[in-house]
Amino acid sequence: MADKDWKPNYDESRVPEYTLPEALALADGTRVTAAGTWLDRRRPQLMALFQEHVYGRMHGPVPGMRIEWMSAHHDVLGGLALRKELCVRFGEGADAPSMLVLVYLPAAARRPVPGFLTLNFRGNHSICADPGITLTRSWLPRDPDHGIVDHRATEAARGSRVDRWPVERILRRGFMLATVYYGDLDPDFDDGFRNGVHPLFDAPDAPRPPDAWGAIGAWAWGLSRALDCLEKDADVDASRLAVMGHSRLGKTALWAGACDPRFAAVISNNSGCGGAALSRRCYGETVGRITRSFPHWFCPRFREYAERESELPVDQHELIALMAPRPVYVASAAEDRWADPRGEFLSALHADPVYRLLGTEGLPTRDWPPVDHPVHGRIGYHVRTGGHDVKPYDWDQYMTFLEKHGLGPAAG
Ligand code: GTR
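A: This is the predicted complex of the input protein with beta-D-galactopyranuronic acid.
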């Protein structure tokens, strides 16, 4: 069906009947009853399935990655913060791809500081009006209203997304915040995988196998490389970092958390289809729709499940389960029907048996909580009033949740 004739289903009574794959069943059908069997056998099976059918193969570090320069400025944001920037280059040549990592640390905090690692949508300079942040030189979607002219950022773009980034609130509560512009890793358009970090791994004109990684894989890979750098920074407690992301970057945060067990916690904000939402519900955005709109995000094989979601060997509750036993948070927004808030909750719920098998409390509810009533077990969940966005309300829940699990500043 052409997308112009396609309409999302927002009617709960028209959600198809479905049977979810069993997170706790081995490929031969036997049930996982011991934590060791989950970790040694079932988890690797699921990782392989997500790579083969959804996100593509994850790659390891590239030789020759180096921190090219670093700056550190004390007493920024009115004395509240220490700001660092790192330029990380992936390879030797001057034209090797690079990323800028922006790090804010609370000036007064006891070192090393735990906190958040995130990707952002519009350049590091967009998260805060701080005049010291380096303006990205990477490709940006044109947005003259927010200071992005001809795909390049101008001074007017500083702080253009502060509404999503309550930097001072985060720092005052004692957390650090590190962020990277996702376009440094892979500009978000379908160019046949010629730009970003893709050419480091794949010849641009080589045929793509069904399990080749896409943009989500490359963005998640970049989060792991940023973590590699933060592990070398004595001010940062890299063993207590939460990887967090919104929307397509929420999908990315989940995939990064699954691939890289060094992330101590994983937070998905309104990640929807291909993120926390169950694919089989076909509510709002579907596998068919997302793979037609964004063919470069997933592996080529994922497209084969368009309108055949029930044939997927996995569903997204198993992605949430791949975080176990680490704290994982799924956040929805009540008006964000495109992302299927209920389907996001059900993923968290169906990951619960794995969390319980591993001896944690899992998700301490069976029922979809009312709006603005967060539930914080080892799995956290809330559905916030309002639409597809990241609000201070969301950040506040994440900080409370991390504190509860010993990932806040007080526990350091
Ligand atoms: C939408 C896409 C969603 C979500 C969102 C975003 O267009 O359909 O899956 O990723 O973009 O990232 O803002």
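The chain has one domain: 44-411. The longest strand covers residues 65-76.
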